[in-house]
Design a protein that fits this description.
The protein is an alpha+beta fold. The protein is built from 11 helices and 13 strands. The protein has 2 domains: 6-197, Ribosomal Protein S5, domain 2 (2-Layer Sandwich), CATH 3.30.230.10; 202-370, 2-Layer Sandwich (Alpha-Beta Plaits). The longest helix is centred in the C-terminal third of the chain and has 23 residues, at 260-282. A hairpin with a 6-residue loop joins β10 and β11 (336-340). It starts with 5 loop residues before the first helix and ends with a strand. The strands form 3 sheets. The chain has a 6-stranded mixed sheet, with helices on both faces. It binds alpha-D-galactopyranose.
Length: 380
């Protein structure tokens, strides 16, 4: 079966429902985070890669706001006064509100959306949508908006309007990624380094959907704030947990009660692992990178307590069958496991892991691969 690209889908839906072609067509990618989980709201580094799978927004001039997605093909009247939680429209309303505050909104717009980024799979379908919307709508208003502004708009839409206590990793990679590169983003300093990476990344979807508005991420973020306060009571003077060095860790872990000592240990060790992973990536050391992924997964499972049985199973099976490494990616509590596989073994490993998963959980997990894609762009 040949897949119709989301660009074609968004354009033909637009023509069908609004009677003419769109004025702007923009796409932005989902992402897979190689390493650096939950560090972005703790001042630490992250190492995401943009997916080749993208979300496309088609938009045209209008006096009012109407939007439709290929998901359900339902035309909706949209207003910045009416937040619609639990639907993709929430992200549109969020972006409209933020653009309105910044004076960047068009008067109205006709919008269609199509995407090949799986939803609820920890692959940041939401930032792909908000970044593409921010670029499409400012384009419609006749403005050329720099990526830094798109990141701010998309982040404020999700954080302040939709209400997810996210960091800035997803919006940043959706806006700034370069094809053939991972992006090392030091969230404390704002430093960005594009690290060449031409390997394949395999994604094993657990099939357990986690919607971030569900609250676990918000709860972890609060726990990290409490942990920071407790560290300060121990005489540590830092602005963020990720600034705490590995050498301080044993004393602090002894001093803090659970679960705060565990959250602290995850953030400090993950910060160290992510920087080492960026060096392994630059050196082309897949075996070392793989080991760091597995350590990262163990830290999520035991210390951050954000994994799930399906993800633990996939990581263990992939490594046992010969993966360099694997780990849960994204916020967690479901979503997808990424795996780095030696090319000569990849077909066998995928088949064996899928079959074992089917025997254990009674269904086949979706598995696919990507290389590093590029950030937000206009489509022809
Ligand atoms: C979600 C958030 C990100 C980041 C990850 C966990 O994807 O949107 O900002 O915190 O979870 O690493």
């Amino acid at each position: 079966m040949t897949q119709v690209s989301p660009g074609r889908q968004a354009t033909s839906l637009f023509q069908e429902r609004f009677g003419s072609g769109p004025a702007v067509l923009v796409s932005a990618p989902g992402r897979v985070n190689l390493l650096g989980e939950h560090t972005d709201y703790n001042g630490g580094p992250v190492l995401p890669v943009a997916l080749e799978r993208r979300t496309v927004v088609a938009a045209g001039h209008a006096d009012r706001w109407r939007a439709i997605s290929t998901l359900d093909e339902m035309m909706r009247e949209v207003s910045p006064e009416r937040m619609e939680h639990g639907s993709w429209i929430a992200y549109l309303v969020g972006v409209m509100r933020v653009l309105g505050r910044k004076g960047l909104n068009p008067r109205g717009a006709s919008v269609t959306v199509a995407s090949s980024v799986p939803i609820g799979a920890g692959l940041s379908s939401s930032a792909a949508l908000t970044v593409a919307l921010a670029r499409a709508l400012t384009g419609l208003a006749g403005r050329k908006t720099p990526p830094e502004v798109l990141i701010d708009v998309a982040w404020e839409a999700e954080h302040d309007e939709v209400g997810v206590a996210c960091g800035r990793m997803d919006q940043t990679v959706a806006a700034l990624a370069r094809p053939g590169h991972a992006l090392l983003f030091e969230t404390g300093s704002g430093g960005i380094t594009h690290v060449p990476y031409d390997g394949k990344i395999w994604l094993f979807q657990t099939g357990v959907s986690h919607r971030l508005t569900g609250g676990q991420l918000n709860l972890r973020r609060k726990e990290c704030e409490v942990a920071l306060g407790l560290c300060r009571e121990q005489g540590i003077t830092v602005h963020a947990l990720a600034e705490i060095g590995m050498e301080e860790l044993p004393r602090l872990v002894r001093a803090l009660p659970v679960p705060w000592s565990q959250r602290l240990r995850h953030i400090v060790t993950e910060t160290d692992r992510t920087r080492r992973a960026a060096r392994a990536l630059a050196a082309g050391d897949s075996a070392q990178l793989g080991r760091l992924l597995v350590e990262g997964h163990e830290s999520l499972r035991l210390d951050y307590q954000s994994s799930c049985a399906e993800a633990d199973f996939l990581v263990e099976a992939a490594v046992r069958h010969g993966a360099w490494g694997a780990r849960l990616t994204g916020a967690g509590w479901g979503g997808a496991v990424l795996a780095l596989l030696p090319p000569e073994k990849e077909a066998r490993i995928v088949a064996e892991v899928q079959e074992e998963f089917r025997r254990q959980f009674g269904r086949m997990p979706e598995v696919w691969a990507t290389r590093a894609g590029g950030g937000v762009r206009s489509e022809k």
